Amino acid sequence: MTLHAITVLGHDRPGIIAETTGKLAGLGLNLEDSTMTLLRGHFAMMLICAGEAPGADIEAALAPLSEDGRLTVSVREVPAGTAAAGISGTSWVLTVHGADRPGIVSRIVGELAAVGGNVTDLTTRLAGDLYLLVAEVDLPAGVDAAAVEAALAAAGTELGVGVTLRGAEADDL
Amino acid sequence: MSLHERLASWSEDELGVTGRVLDVVRAPAPVLSTVGADVDPTAQDVVQLAADLVATMRVSPGCVGLAAPQVGVSARVFCVDVSAHPKTQRHHGTFVLCNATVVEASRNEKSREGCMSVPDFTGDVKRATRLVVHGALPGTGESVTVEANAFEARALQHEIDHCAGLLFLDRAAGAHAIYARKTYL
Q1: I want to staple B166 with a disulfide (CB 3.0 to 4.6 A). Which of A33, B1, B84, B170 is the partner?
Q2: Are residues A94 and A145 in the same domain?
């Protein structure tokens, strides 16, 4: 059993997911994790699938998708079991919003990287002049979250954006 | 939950001034991320602001609340009126509170919110559905402690957040909890 990472990027139209997953199902591949969104109107899908089909067969099966030159498909084998190096710590939701300018993401997430924080999910959006980042972050055990918050707030002030770090709540039912 | 009779019977007519319709500012206006100043609820400019907030809310389709920072004034004043909203249970109609604080909050529920100052996004936000808020009425300065539930509780928390320089974006439930708005009110 091997894992393949597949990306499909490009011009959006109805039916891309149906065609892609239909080809994969035809090769007996199982979708393990997938995400799809529109980025500035462009279709963007990433998925990990498991199965016995070799990469060349997957590429051949998906080739019709990119025939008209409007979609780009990539297929790459990836090693199994690479879940993030098991950070045992605390989970947070980070929100950043403010006037758009270059360097907001790098400056803010740099503060997290400096303490070994791991971004596990991140989306950014731009609407008019409003730039918005929302990320889910794991901080390693022992990290002083208040100090991280202060560092993020200082970076936010420098950039002229608002930064909020809140504990990610999970209600077990 | 008991209805606060004084608040329920309040109307902007008590203010004795005519409200003006003001422009609503949009993020990333810095005033929306600034902690609002405490106000003297009996001051004439606060009474006028209260009337202006209600007048602006009234002419804005679907608007159930408006806080001073949304009209460019960094002050702890807001109005709400959730009476026409389908998610409303009990409500106090139209009212304005100054210097409001949350006294008690319980029974969190997640729901999708929008905001006139963030017209391009909506977001999932967890808020208390049982709430006790303390504040002062504009004009008389009477101190009130009000119990609210369901959608009125959500609206109050949203407006109190505005007065503290927070948007619903700051309370997004996760990285995929913010959505591009497809229909505009």
Answers
A1: B170
A2: yes
